[in-house]
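Q: What would this complex look like in 3D?
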Amino acid sequence: MLNYTLRRLAFAVPTVLVISLIVFLMLDMAPGDPTASLPLTIPPEVREQMRLALGLGDPVLVRYVKWLHMMVVVEPSHMIANATGWNIGVEGPRILSWQTRSPVGDIIVQRMPQTLWVVGLGYLFGILIAVPIGVISAYRQYSWFDQAGTFVSMVGFSVPTFFTGVVFILIFSVWLGWFPSMYDTTHQVRDWDSFVFQVRQIAMPVAVLALFNASQISRFMRASMLDNLNQDYVRTARAKGLREKTVVLVHVLRNSMIPVVTVIAIGIPTVFTGAIITEQIFRVNGLGDALIRAIYVSDWPMVQTITFIFAILIVLFNLIADVLYGILDPRIRYD
Amino acid sequence: MTDASMQPSGTPPPPAEDVHDLRPPRNQWWDVWDQFKTHKGALAGMIVFISILLFVTAGPWIWAVDPGLIDIRSRNQGSSWAHPMGTDQLGRDILARMMYGGRVSVAVGLVAMLLGLLLGTLIGVLAGYFKPMDGPLMRLTDLFLALPLLPLLLILVTLFRDTLEGMFGQATGVFLLIVFAIAITSWMQTARIVRGDVLALKEREFVLAARSIGTPSRRINTRHILPNVMSPIMVSATLGIATAIITESALSFLGLGFPPDFPTWGRILYDGRDWIEQYPARVVWPGVFISLTVLSVNYIGDGLRDALDPRIRGR
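A: Here is my prediction, written as structure tokens for the whole assembly.
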């Protein structure tokens, strides 16, 4: 198992590098220029010197290696230094955002918690809704609950999040006035009232994501339960007199969870990228919002960094899913 | 796609009365259609999808209103006989905009799906059939699967929009860009499925027989292997339409799709969002159309999957 993990890890690193190189080369062709927004009165020689100072004079591969060094050495060291207070920040230039002229890493650290809260809660609630629905749907296959559940999950899976989000705003903030339609990121939780406000403002984005995720996961859960319910070991368990509850919730559910867990793991990065849209609807200033804004104003270092983070997430969780599958299912032998 | 694949959606099945002992050989697609009919959701999905196709293709002939006609005096109207879906803030007729917008959205969905399918099938067949290409092509597929697709799409659209607009004009340029961008980010699943099937098929006796009578590889693939991987390809085609339509609308919704004077469902939804408190219908119509299209296509895909599975068929 360890051998397999190491082998996969050895393959994951070049994958991430190639992806980052692709994005880097693509953005390198972009017409945007950090000196474009400077006043026209600056003479061309000075402008050229500024470009050189920003490191734009080197060949593209040199710039890529420099960027990579900043990305994987300098920025993480500063993040750890800020988080722990240790003085381990590596000296040297950091990746600067062209729009704010501040290090990209700092902006990402500011934006991360909002995204993590919204996406994490959305995914968590999605799983919590999906598993029982999938189990009951499969156990009572073709019952009215199953029919309704399958239909609802089909709808939830087909309706894009930008429409569910807008409908939620329409119903719950415009008509009923229960929740605020915009997420106030400056809000701080200090006492009970501010906590209630936080819950109210996070409710809708979380609900939108939870619904979408639940409809996807419950389909897998149902299919996986159906595969297992007709297996011989279930009959054996019933025959030896186990209660129905034990049979379904212990024997079948545990075995059905194996593929579902891997699906959940693979889905995590997609949820991050998918949350870009949800963040736009509710104006949550998370990572996805930072990406969209950076794209609007051609702030390529920012775009590059966030895309790199997403790529790492995808590769990492694919790896985790495969390893988990091997750990959970003793029938799978990778070595 | 072969001609045979188009049959289930076309003419009705033969009457069931003429059952005699020596029935003429029956095309397998009739069996598929018979099974497909039993899936109520799929049938309903097909009816809805065909209605939507009619709405966007034939609709503008019946409702001959210019979607770009600005009539500022009758702006922000509700539903009326003159404007069944009302008008927007510039007095443009929303029904006409929905029809023209639907044309673009559905066209993007279909063309992007076809391109992605073509690319996926090509790579899948090459990887599955020709051993030396298997490794590199599958690594490429893995690489593409690890790409953060939505951010990449956004970057692609922002970077190449001006170039393509300059080359092909505004509308065509953006259309080509979005179709290509969606296609090159959505072929991987098809390629994997096709490769798996081709790997299993090429060891079968009928392929061996074909090879032993000297059939060239190209013809073995087109005549013997491809028809047999048609079923998974068709299922991923339906899923491909759904994803492509959602992706296009999402791009438009993020303001990075088609230009503002060029309506698509996603764009109408995006524009209507600023008026949601006063005129919610403006957001609901495009949203409902996108959702209905995707839902119907997904149901068709579900029905097709069951109908094309010979283990389920005939039960």
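A: To summarize the key features: Residues 51-56+90-308 of chain B form a domain with the MetI-like fold fold (CATH 1.10.3720.10). The first helix of chain B runs from residue 28 to 38.
Q: Very helpful, thank you.
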